[in-house]
């Protein structure tokens, strides 16, 4: 599971008000390189919940990857920024698309229901009494 | 073979061996990728080369997701069968996979997804596989959560196999109740095998630009096949005896075989069913030399 998906995912357990953001507890994660596409990120960024993304990177033990506040868009999508090592767009791309959480769990903030992640696949199945 | 929906619940039916069978059969792979291509076409994403974030509901082993990846899109796949997702892992699909039951809702933040496809999955919602399942509630939860997570103006294309008209009506009704605009597009309606129904849904009010696309093989010549039989057999019709009730000897056999008209009619019929049929030329159904 990439952090992109984690950013979109909310729990729908009975009793959860928003079920968002799910608290990430990662036991194991890997990185896989993906080609950067600025157009995709431009369309995606308004939909990203920045605070949840930052919290997720912190949970992975990467406190320096992203700043607390989202940088302004002009800075992120500045001409040629995609080719500069360590630029904001590179970091965002890395955080969203290149980090794959392999083992761990997602915890619902409202009900503390734990959704285990096994081989990179979160198990979001609910029991009959949780629907 | 009855359809899989009638055999067992999806998480039970698609066990390890069935999942493997599904993904190694070249026939299924071909059908799946052809349906996903068509679904992506119906999704009508803006043709600007920008990748989108899509959902694949009932992604299984990721056959349909592969088509999305080929077009450069990022996708999140939902499936209820662990074995199918394991195969998807083996195949190293690009999208993210979630083990979830679509009848319990998708559990996504509102307005974040650019489009959704689903290949042969929605009809499973019409089954009640557990005592706690109510198809109506599950359809409602599914379409409600799908509507919420899609961005405004985004589309969802859900290919499904309805068992009967009622089932298909039920699915469409719940989609409309959730707030979607759209309807069912049927490809190759005259063929029993190639016929495919796609539920094309748009998030938000219906616009001219979101009008329903046409199904394939749905041209004007929809007349039923037995209308034009009578042309040269009027004499027999008045007698009122079925040809096959006559004794073999008395049956009128035409000297020249079935004729060009019959041949053209048959070719048209096969074309409407979506088969590959050679074009009609001046050689079609021509007279042959008589041989001894």
Automatic annotation (TrEMBL), chain A:
One GO MF term attached to the UniProt entry: protein heterodimerization activity
Database matches in InterPro entries: Trm112 (IPR039127), Trm112-like (IPR005651)
Pfam families with a match to the protein in the record: Trm112p
GO biological process: rRNA (guanine-N7)-methylation; tRNA methylation
Xref: CDD domains: Trm112-like
Family to which the UniProt record says this protein belongs: Belongs to the TRM112 family.
Subunit structure as annotated in this protein's UniProt entry: Interacts with TRM9.
Name recorded for this polypeptide: Multifunctional methyltransferase subunit TRM112-like protein
Lineage, highest ranks first: Eukaryota, Viridiplantae, Streptophyta, Embryophyta, Tracheophyta
From TrEMBL, chain B:
Pfam families (UniProt xref): Methyltransf_11, WBS_methylT
Domain (18S rRNA (guanine(1575)-N(7))-methyltransferase Bud23 C-terminal): residue spans on this chain: 201-290
Record family assignment: Belongs to the class I-like SAM-binding methyltransferase superfamily. BUD23/WBSCR22 family.
Compartmental location: Cytoplasm; Nucleus
Region (Disordered): 212-292
Protein name from the UniProt record: Methyltransferase type 11 domain-containing protein
Domain Methyltransferase type positions: 55-157
Biased composition (Basic and acidic residues): 258-267
Sequence ranges of Acidic residues compositional bias: 223-235
Compositional bias segments (type: Basic residues): 246-257
Species for this entry: Panicum hallii var. hallii
GO cellular component: cytoplasm; nucleolus
InterPro entries (alphabetical): Bud23-like, Bud23_C, Methyltransf_11, SAM-dependent_MTases_sf
Keywords: Cytoplasm, Methyltransferase, Nucleus, S-adenosyl-L-methionine, Transferase
Listed GO MF terms: rRNA (guanine) methyltransferase activity
A Gene Ontology biological process term: rRNA (guanine-N7)-methylation
């Amino acid at each position: 599971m990439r952090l992109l998906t984690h950013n979109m995912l909310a729990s729908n357990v009975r009793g959860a008000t928003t079920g968002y953001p799910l608290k990430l507890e990662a036991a194991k994660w890997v990185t896989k390189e993906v080609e950067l596409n600025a157009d995709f990120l431009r369309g995606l960024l308004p939909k990203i919940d920045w605070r949840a993304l930052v919290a997720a990177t912190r949970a992975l033990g990467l406190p320096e990857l992203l700043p607390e506040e989202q940088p302004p868009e002009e800075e992120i999508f500045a001409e040629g920024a995609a080719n500069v090592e360590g630029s904001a767009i590179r970091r965002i791309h890395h955080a969203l698309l290149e980090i794959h959480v392999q083992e761990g769990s997602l915890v619902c903030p409202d009900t503390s229901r734990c959704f285990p992640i096994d081989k990179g696949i979160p198990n979001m199945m609910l029991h009959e009494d949780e629907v | 073979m009855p359809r899989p929906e009638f055999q067992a619940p999806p998480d039970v039916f698609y066990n390890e061996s069935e999942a493997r069978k599904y993904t190694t059969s070249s026939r299924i792979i071909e059908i799946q990728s052809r349906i996903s291509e068509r679904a992506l076409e119906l999704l009508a994403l803006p043709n600007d080369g920008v990748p989108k974030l899509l959902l694949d509901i009932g992604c299984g082993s990721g056959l349909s997701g592969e088509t999305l990846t080929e077009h450069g899109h990022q996708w999140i796949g939902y499936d209820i069968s662990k074995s199918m997702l394991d195969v998807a892992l083996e195949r190293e699909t690009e999208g993210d996979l979630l083990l979830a039951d679509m009848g319990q809702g998708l559990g996504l933040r509102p307005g974040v997804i650019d489009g959704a496809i689903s290949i042969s999955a929605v009809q499973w919602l019409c089954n009640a596989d557990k005592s706690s399942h109510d198809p109506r509630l599950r359809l409602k939860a599914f379409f409600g959560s799908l509507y919420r997570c899609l961005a405004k103006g985004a589309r969802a294309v859900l290919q499904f196999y309805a068992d009967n008209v009622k089932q298909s009506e039920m699915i469409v009704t719940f989609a409309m109740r959730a707030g979607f605009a759209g309807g069912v597009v049927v490809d190759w309606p005259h063929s029993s095998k190639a016929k495919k129904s796609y539920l094309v849904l748009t998030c938000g009010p219906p616009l001219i630009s979101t009008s329903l696309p046409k199904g394939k093989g749905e041209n004007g010549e929809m007349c039923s096949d037995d209308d034009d039989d009578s042309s040269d057999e009027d004499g027999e019709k008045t007698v009122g005896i079925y040809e096959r009730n006559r004794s073999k000897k008395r049956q009128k056999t035409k000297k020249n075989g079935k004729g060009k008209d019959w041949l053209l009619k048959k070719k048209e019929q096969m074309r409407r069913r979506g088969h590959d049929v050679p074009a009609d030329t001046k050689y079609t159904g021509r007279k042959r030399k008589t041989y001894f």
